[in-house]
Amino acid sequence: MDSVLPEPLYSDITKGQKKIDGVLLSHAHLDHFGLMGKLPSHIPIYMGAATARQVQFIERFTPKQSWSD
Predict the structure, then answer these.
(1) DSSP 3-state helix, strand, coil percentages of the chain (rounded to 5)?
(2) 14, 35, 36, 57: least buried by Cβ within 10 Å?
(3) How many Å apart are CA 59 and CA 3, to the nearest integer?
(4) What is the pLDDT of residues 13-27, one digit of tens each?
(5) Beta-bridge partners for 24
(6) Residues near 43 by beta carbon (within 8 Å), at least 6 away in sequence
(7) Domain boundaries in the chain?
(8) Which residues contact 28 (CB under 8 A, 6 or more apart)?
(9) Cα–Cα distance, 5 to 21 (Å, whole number)
(10) pTM score
């Protein structure tokens, strides 16, 4: 497991000991969405259209990071 992930919350989520209904991404700062690719795939990520466009733009011009596993 990556040491940059918040422990013990991340372990609790992946083991099913904590339930998260979804993640709301308010804006596309890398420090807010940079680890979203590490979330279990069953957790939905919600964001507005402008934020989604910003995330796509940042992904296009930034070397591969944790969000795109």
Answers:
(1) 40, 5, 55
(2) 57
(3) 22
(4) 888 888 888 888 888
(5) 46
(6) 13, 20, 21, 22, 23
(7) 9-61
(8) 47, 51, 54, 55, 58
(9) 19
(10) 0.64
